[in-house]
Amino acid sequence: MDDKNQNNPKLSIFYITMGGALIAMTTLLAKALGTDSLGDPLHPLQISNARFLAAFIPILIITIIRKTKIESPRWHLHITRSISGWSAVSLLFAAVAIIPVSDATAITFLNPIFGMVFAIPILREKVGSKRWLAAIIGLVGSMILIRPTSASFQPAALLALISASIMGLELIIIKYLAKYESTLQILVINNAMGLFISTVAVLFVWEPPSLHQWSAMAALGILMSGGQVCNIKALRGADASFILPFSYSTLLFVTLYDFLIYSFKPDMTSYIGASVIMFSVVIMTWHQIKSSQRNPH
């Protein structure tokens, strides 16, 4: 897991897509836990606490087995990233318990837009006109999927929007940390801090889960950890402003899982929105290929 930095856009696209597949499943699990699908609905803070607990245990075991040393951590960034991650996850879990998963997911797709904006002052990345165009197209696709009806603008949608902005900041912090610290070190520190923060918060709302809910919460944490690993690896190999829009693939996985598990069938609006998003990804890929050909390593 302690891989070196490398410039490999194609591998980064693979990792960010895999991360999207795993994170899409956690969103559906959070929906099940926050509704009566598996028992009495659990509070979003309890779901996020379970996510950090289930993720921290295997990461801690791996850290001990590999005898990984914590070397020169940038504590201020880790603290900011951990608070951001916990806040974003809790807000998202609150949103998906109220509005459709596809709507909440579409809204969170704004996080690459926020991330690309944050990358300019924080990482000093240059964002060309084609990347801005692709980002705007992706944003339009997400807005199509949000379906701007009265239901879309209830408070839960605003929770998802705030979550998206925080996620964008968190991804940029990960990108910066990945330049100087190992993947495992970033994961163990983040999940330890996230577990501490979420444990303090859950003390006020905790309710005994059912057996099915325990299983779902464990799976949620493990899948979220896998998504984190994929995202960190993706951000190591390409500019954040390039790779972040590929997280739109999460929507495709949410739609697929919804169909396979709940027999949810997308309507024409869903197909149009997804097509617009994929078009933005094609633009980004084409631009990256052309850039690589002009500036071979």
Secondary-structure blueprint of this entry?
Layout: H1 9-34, H2 44-65, H3 75-96, H4 101-108, H5 111-122, H6 129-146, H7 155-178, H8 183-202, H9 211-236, H10 240-243, H11 249-262, H12 268-294
Helix pairs in contact: 1-3, 1-9, 1-11, 2-3, 2-8, 2-9, 3-7, 3-8, 4-6, 4-7, 4-11, 5-7, 6-12, 7-9
Query: How many domains make up the 3D coordinates?
Result: 1
Distance between the termini: 25 Å
Average of the residue pLDDT scores: 82
Number of helices: 12
Shape: globular
Q: Compute the gyration radius: what is it?
A: 18 Å
Q: Which percent range fits the helix content? A: over 70%
Q: How many DSSP-defined strands?
A: 0
Label the structural class: mainly alpha
| Major beta sheet summary | none
Classify the beta-strand content into a percent band.
Answer: under 5%
Unreliable segments of 5+ consecutive residues: 1-5
Helix and strand sequence: HHHHHHHHHHHH
